[in-house]
Design brief:
76% helix
Length: 220
């Protein structure tokens, strides 16, 4: 019964994420870079399955509550970054601050949570700087930049959520997922458009979200 209730709550949270994504689009008059009419049911189902997994993993605990809130953040960031290549400060900055303040109630504890966030920030910020320098040296003009500042903030949030030492696995999985996503994107271009746009950018936020959520829940 509890599992069904959590799944229902997850579906409602997914519907709220779907509504929030629409509100951001309307509020900032954004143009879609990508949109699927299946977004709403996919987000609702993802929320339901995600919350069900949290119940099976944590049961009735403070970690369940925190992980449910972090799941909503990951899901919202994933949607907005896929559709607009934007990670909104109004979402990720309060989320990171909340995760840091809530760390005493996490199973990770304060030290592991904050160290995870600090390490993620340093590593991903270094990647961001390197990507910017590389693009300038090579004269590459990548729409939206080779790597975004929003990715650095998202990685910091992810690091706080998964903690030390899991942050290293989360970043590794993000890189692997991002590489796989880039190969699939290039294959799609080659097959569907018969061309390769090597300077086209893909959003990395979704890969941070997927890797971060998986490590948060399954600690793999």
């Amino acid at each position: 019964m509890e599992l069904v209730l959590l799944a229902l709550l997850g579906g409602i949270s997914g519907a709220a994420v779907n509504r929030a994504a629409d509100d951001f689009t309307a509020r900032y008059a954004l143009q879609y870079r990508f949109y699927s009419p299946l977004r709403a049911p996919m987000v609702v189902v993802s929320g339901a399955l995600g919350f069900a997994a949290l119940w099976l993993r944590y049961g009735a605990s403070s970690q369940l509550v925190l992980s449910a809130l972090y799941t909503v953040v990951f899901l919202l960031v994933l949607v907005t970054d896929v559709e607009h290549r934007l990670i909104f400060n109004v979402v990720i900055l309060p989320a990171a601050l909340f995760a840091a303040l809530a760390s005493p109630f996490s199973q990770l504890g304060v030290a592991r949570s904050l160290l995870g966030g600090a390490i993620a920030f340093v590593i991903v910020f270094a990647i961001y700087i390197f990507a910017e320098l590389f693009a300038r040296v090579r004269g590459l003009r990548i729409a939206g930049g080779a790597f975004g500042q929003g990715d650095v903030k998202l990685a910091t949030f992810m690091g706080i959520v998964v903690g030390l030492p899991n942050v290293f696995f989360a970043i590794l999985y993000t890189i692997l997922l991002g590489g796989g996503g880039a190969l699939l994107f290039l294959a799609y271009q080659l097959i569907a458009q018969r061309r390769l746009a090597l300077t086209a950018a893909i959003p990395y936020g979704p890969f941070f979200c997927m890797a971060g959520w998986a490590v948060m829940v399954f600690q793999i």
